[in-house]
């Protein structure tokens, strides 16, 4: 998943991301995807993290409650909590996946290089990626298969919610498993470590296995 699937919902009087200076932004926890989505949003408007106050709420439901209760001015929440925010009269302020600021390694598969050097392990990894790629293509091409899987594993039978899930995540799933350099670069700039700025981001991913499945 190369994009952040966490949106910002705000009080009606907040019309743009620029209006967030000096405001309170709800997240689940520092270092969680909601926090990184908030940092990406601020970056899109040239706002520094210390120009706002991040409020940790503990969970997505709690972050929505904080917005409804007025404890924050904007909050970072994912689907389907955004539907509840909309129903409560709050406007969508920022959707990361709609811009390059939302490019981020939200869900990754990682392996040790030493493990991959073993030919048997590399074959296992390639076979796994081949299966994953087939599942990815099915997800993009067959909404009914997606809804059937959600009914079975998530145990949700609300047709409107299932259809909404299909529509929301359709643009989030990539057309290829190849890692884009920009995705990793965006993540690196939010890492608070002295060596982060000098790190060669191309060393953090390996597309050769994905190329093999073709």
What does this structure look like?
The protein is α/β, with parallel strands linked by helices. It folds into two domains: 97 residues, 3-Layer(aba) Sandwich (D-Maltodextrin-Binding Protein, domain 2); 100 residues, no CATH class. 43% of the residues lie in helices and 10% in strands. It is built from nine helices and five strands. It has a five-stranded mixed sheet, sandwiched between helices. Helix 2 runs parallel beside helix 3 and helix 6 packs across helix 7. The longest helix has 23 residues. The model has no long low-confidence stretch (mean pLDDT 94).
Could you name the key traits of this structure?
5 strands, five-stranded mixed β-sheet, 2 domains, globular, 10% strand, alpha/beta, 43% helix, D-Maltodextrin-Binding Protein, domain 2
Structural class: alpha/beta
Secondary structure: number of strands: 5
Order of helices and strands: EEHEHEHEHHHHHH
Q: Tell me the distance between the termini.
A: 19 Å
Side by side, the strands of the main sheet go: 3-2-4-1-5
Strand count, sense and barrel status of the largest sheet are: 5 strands, mixed
